[in-house]
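G., the chain you wanted modeled:
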Amino acid sequence: MTARAAPIGGVLVVLLGAGLGARWLFTSPRFAVTEVAVAGASRLTAEEIVAASGIGPGTNLFRLDRGAVVARLEALPLVRRADLVRRFPNRVTLAVEERRPFTLAHAGRLHWIDEQGVSLGTETRAVAPKAPVITGLHPADLGAGLTSPRVAAGISLLRVLLRSETALLQQISEIDVSRPDGPVLYTVEGVEVRLGAEDWEAQLGRLQGVLAQVRASGEAISAIDLRFRDQVVLKTQTR
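Predicted structure as tokens:
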């Protein structure tokens, strides 16, 4: 009986010690957070990020729920990714990757959006965007959740334009995604260009050639239709 009691007693002592040790870790002032650093922020202030994290003064380092803190930070519209790094014994670093403005989109009001179509807020000032504005959107297209098909189409077409690395990008002012048969471009002169719903890279190559021919001819046109495989339809301006 005594021989069996000794190991059991030893186990109880170990468990008691472990429990006291854990209690000390979770309650000791030594592990109370005294500094929260922020890395990677430029548009958001450190104060905004710390406030959103929910980490209050004196929070125990071991009681921090990393998943919950990250979820709160990534709920901020301007934050794409976030992480929490514990710096023992009493410091925390909040690392964020902010969403970057990609272009302007019009959905009742002008919004800056990133490459995933997430709205980064409205633009109330007069601006001269360096890329075409995506139009033909409803406010719901820029709401929370998945990127709408219209926004996705506008972003995809803009990426094709950017990859072309030609002067064509500077000639396009607007990408209208409201049409069911594919996006419609508008040049800086107001010419409507119908591309269709696919093979945009080839269509843009054709467009560049058509615009060069139109400029050379001096003909005033109001619309270009490239939806037909072996035919380009031009609509001349009525005087």
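The longest strand covers residues 79-87.

Shout if anything looks off.
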